[in-house]
Amino acid sequence: MRAYEVMFITDPNLEVDQHEAILDRLTRVVAERGGSVANVDRWGKRRLAYEIAGHREGNYTVMSFQADPSVGVELERVMRITDGIIRYLIVKQEDV
What we know:
Elements: E1 2-10, H1 16-32, E2 36-52, E3 55-67, H2 69-81, E4 85-92
Antiparallel strand pairs: 1-3, 1-4, 2-3
């Protein structure tokens, strides 16, 4: 298994429950495919560097997890079709 980190930005107009539902869905995708979530860091609402989909702000969340490479592909697919996520990035963490 490899270590990954995903940062995603959600619509700032979402309720807290809706944001938590998105986070829960993403953690379930990782867990159902044999991965494990190590850490979830909620940065909260921040100003974007540039306007994305008509938004000047977004709720940032960073999730660290360990999984096989196929999980990253599925996670990306789920984030692409999830309403409320306006931007995301998955990176593989280097071995130190």
